[in-house]
Design goal:
47% of the residues are buried. By secondary structure, this protein is of the alpha/beta class. The chain is globular, with a radius of gyration of 15 Å.
Length: 207
């Protein structure tokens, strides 16, 4: 199993439907093994999500970026994806492992209690947030850096998400995050390749 990516580029229905998806995905994936592209669309059926994941896999292959499928262990296993991301309404990590035996399994958590439960259930890493206020979830209270610090002490890599841009990436790294995840800061950036490198820079600079 390859190392866990430090930068997770999360998609949604709008991103996946964009006419320039291929160009933007290739630009983000150019950062190589440090990047994971996530096939995520809660409104999509199995066929549509499979098609999206298959397209991302093709774009990610030359630079050896990873592809994670969100919510569907069967699709992740069938396509040979490098990871699976689970939400609160999905299977537990332990249940998903029976379907997706190899690769990373992450769990999205929003509190220390949820994080501890995810660890107990076998999650390999935690997607933690939202750390700062974010347009992706307007009105949702920001958990702040304390949530990153507390979850990072639980013995699993923490990927911080929510309102994180290049200026804040160093803050979450200093709080103990293994890496970051983003939607707008990557997919809607004027230069997605430069945005990816900027988000990764605090870990490149770390001793």
């Amino acid at each position: 199993m390859r190392p866990l990516a430090r930068l997770h580029a999360i998609t949604d229905a709008a991103v996946l439907a964009a006419p320039d998806l291929g160009i933007r995905a290739a630009a983000i994936a150019a950062a190589g093994s440090a990047v994971a592209l996530h096939a995520r669309d809660h409104s999509a059926g199995g066929a549509a999500l499979t098609a999206a994941a298959r397209r991302l896999l093709a774009l990610a292959r030359p630079p050896e970026a990873s592809v994670f499928v969100n919510g569907r262990a069967d699709i992740a296993a069938a396509l040979g994806a490098q990871g699976l991301q689970l939400g609160s309404d999905d299977l537990t990590a332990g249940e998903a492992r029976g379907i997706f035996p190899t690769g990373w399994i992450g769990r999205s958590v929003h509190s220390p209690t949820e994080a501890a439960q995810a660890v107990d259930q076998g999650a390999d890493f935690l997607l933690v947030g939202n750390v700062f206020e974010t347009g992706s979830h307007p009105g949702r209270t920001a958990a702040g850096l304390d949530l990153v610090r507390e979850t990072a002490s639980m013995g699993r890599p923490v990927i911080a998400i929510g309102g994180i841009d290049a200026a804040r990436a160093a803050e979450v790294r200093d709080a103990g995050a293994y890496g970051v995840a983003a939607i707008s800061a990557l997919w809607h950036a004027a230069d997605p390749a430069a945005a990816a490198l900027a988000l990764l820079q605090p870990w490149v600079d770390a001793p």
